[in-house]
Every structure is written in C-alpha cells, then in structure tokens.
Design brief:
Order of helices and strands: HHHHHHHHHHHHHHHHH
Radius of gyration: 20 Å
C-alpha cells in the first residue's frame, strides 16, 4: 500500500472550484435560512466584548444563544471587536470559506493509497457533505477551525510528529472541546510523549484568562462554563438538529435516567469499537487516516449537543468511504448508502414537513452516523484502509 500522495500543482483548479462552490453554497444558506446575522458568530463575538470589559461571559438570560466555549476562546475572538459587527461577519464568512476549501484539500492530501481521481473524489465528497458546509457557513459556526487543527494533527501523525499532533488536538479543544475525542487515538499512536505538549497547551489555555480576570475570576469562569454546558444540555435533547446518542435515546424512549444510561452505554461501545479498529492497525501500511476519521465521525454522537452539521468534521470518513467504495460488498454498500441518505440528505425541502419530522423523531441522522462509522470499521476489518 502506498503512502499518502500529495496533490499535484495542476489540480489546484479543483481546489479553487471547491472554494467557489462552498462560497456559493454558504451564500445560498444565508438567504435560505432567513438569518439577519451569522448567529453563531455573534455569540463568541459578544463574549469577546464582555471579555474586554472584564464582564461575566456566561449568562443564563442569553437563552438559547448562551456562550458555551471555554473562557480562553473569548480572548481569541477579541480582534473581531476591533471592527463593527457587520464587517466582522463578512471577514469571518470569507475566512470560513477559505478554511472549507483547505479542509477538503488537506483531507484529500492525507488520504493514503487513493483509488479515485482527485476531481471525482472531491465532487462526490462535497455532494455528501454539502449540507453540513451550508449550515456551517450560514450560521457562522466554528467547526472548520477545529477540522483544520484535527486534520493537521492527522498529517503530523502520518509524518511521525507526535508532539505536534498532541499540541494541535489540545488547541482544537479550546475552539470546541469535542476535539478531545481524538485523545484515545493519540495515545494509541504515540504513547505518552505527545501528552507533554498537549498538557502544556491545555494548561496555558485554561490559565490565560487569569491575566484579565485574576485567579479567582478565572476559576469562576471555568465553573460557569461547566454550569452552562450542563444546564443547556437537557433542553436541547429533542431538537431536530441534535444527533447525539443522548438525543437519539431521548427521542426513542423519552428523556430521563434510562435514556441517559443507554446513551452512555452507546458511547462506551462506540469508543471501544474504535479500540478494535486501532488494534488491527498493523494490517495496513498507513492506519492513521481511517482511525482519526472514525473518531471524527463519532464527535456529534458523543457530544450531548452534537448538531447534525458537526458531521462536517467527519468529512475524511466520507471521503474514505467514497474512495474505497469498490472494496465494500453489496450489503455494506447498502449500509453506506443508507447512512449517506440519513445524514446528508435529511433536508426539510426534500422530504417536506410530515416525512421530515417523522424521520427526525426516529433519530434518523443519528442512525445514519452510526452506519457511516460501522462502514469505516468494516474497511479496517478488510484491511483496505
């Protein structure tokens, strides 16, 4: 099996085409969703304004749009307070479009022993992940920075740079804490050494706000962060866009202790399955891509507030399945197609109200994500990725 090949210079037009498609898709999403602002960009920007003023960041009276990131992220967002909010939105939208193209390109570069041409693989992957890109850009979300840091950790691992991989995963956690889902993969791949820079980056990020708020003030912020995340989980479990294990079980049997227990059990099984995948890593020449892709697909399932568009981070997994399509049996292709339909094409405008709401109540996207993860396990079991 050959190692990951780079993308030749002549394929740069493909990357530019990706950027154009994503910009147009994002612009369409803004119009289609009837948003007056990039709502998810506005939340951390408001927190940055409060950070500069040394004010509390976590406020229950913000309702659904409470700030849920680590305190340090508000500090990183301070540059966006130097310009007006409309200008900041334009800048962030442009940056996310660029990051989207970079994420696709780096996922393509990292894929080992590629079967399909870059052009075919990119367009088919975009077809399957376009829904997630539209929402990401339309809401002004921050999953793409996480995606770049995680794909950067993967590429670092492919080149034997465990220290850089550890630092990248820790940095990603301060954008979105669910970047920590790659910690088991990091430990299995490199042992304890990457946890030196990992720990240093985590400690620096947790302590940095103390410069502004003082030691006690920073501890209060961290406590308020935990309270906000836990207090806002239950009200969001039955949301149509939530595809997490807790949401899936809550939709099936109703919220409560039993649903929580089953969700925890599902999470344990999913992570344990990742352990099985990594156990068979010696069967392939370059194991890191599929393993990292598998855990990234799990992110919206493991996070209690895992919205469907967080599957954007699973793009390497979708790309891997498309590229290895011929290595799947007819039965497993049917499983993959079902997963694609339930995750990529569960759209209100396609199914219309009655069918869409029925599928949402069934937790269809959650099931679809599980099927995608299962297909990745199958690829490793056959030792083709």
């Amino acid at each position: 099996m050959r190692y990951a090949r780079s993308v030749p210079t002549r394929q740069w037009p493909i990357v530019r085409a990706v950027a154009v498609v994503l910009i147009v898709a994002g612009a369409y999403g803004l119009v289609r969703l009837n948003r007056d602002e990039l709502v998810d960009f506005a939340v951390p920007r408001t927190a940055a304004v409060r950070f500069v003023a040394h004010e509390p960041l976590y406020r229950p009276d913000d309702g659904h749009f409470q700030y849920k990131y680590f305190p340090a992220f508000a500090q990183f967002m301070v540059p966006f307070t130097w310009v007006s909010k409309p200008i900041g939105e334009v800048v962030w939208f442009a940056l996310t479009a660029v990051m989207a193209a970079a994420f696709v390109r780096l996922s393509l570069i990292a894929l080992p022993d590629r079967r399909l041409s870059a052009k075919v693989l990119v367009w088919l992957t975009l077809l399957l992940t376009g829904k997630f890109f539209v929402k990401e850009l339309a809401f002004g979300q921050f999953n793409l920075p996480v995606g770049l840091l995680l794909i950067g950790a993967l590429i670092a691992a492919q080149h034997g740079r465990g220290l850089a991989a550890g630092a990248a995963i820790a940095a990603g956690a301060f954008v979105k804490p669910y970047a920590l889902v790659l910690v088991p993969w990091l430990a299995r791949t490199f042992g304890w050494r990457p946890f030196v820079p990992f720990t240093l980056v985590m400690a620096a990020g947790l302590l940095l706000p103390a410069v502004t708020y003082g030691w006690d003030g920073n501890l209060t912020l961290l406590h308020e962060w935990y309270r906000t995340v836990t207090d806002t989980t239950a009200p969001n479990l039955l949301s149509a866009d939530n595809i997490s294990f807790p949401s899936m079980w809550a939709k099936w049997i109703g919220p409560g202790p039993q649903a929580s227990t089953l969700a925890l059990g599902s999470a344990v099984i999913a992570v344990a399955a990742g352990g099985v995948v990594m156990f068979r890593r010696r069967q392939v020449t370059e194991p890191n891509y599929l393993e990292a892709a598998y855990f990234c697909v799990l992110i919206p399932l493991l996070s209690p507030q895992g919205w469907d568009y967080v599957l954007l981070l699973g793009l390497p997994g979708y790309m891997c399945l498309v590229d290895r399509w011929r290595d799947l049996s007819t039965g497993w292709r049917a499983v993959a197609v079902t997963g694609f339909l339930l995750t990529s094409f569960l759209i209100f405008d396609l199914q219309r109200r009655t069918l869409y709401l029925y599928l949402v109540r069934l937790g269809a996207s959650s099931v679809g994500a599980v099927l995608i993860a299962a297909c990745l396990i199958r690829l490793r079991w056959k030792a083709v990725a």
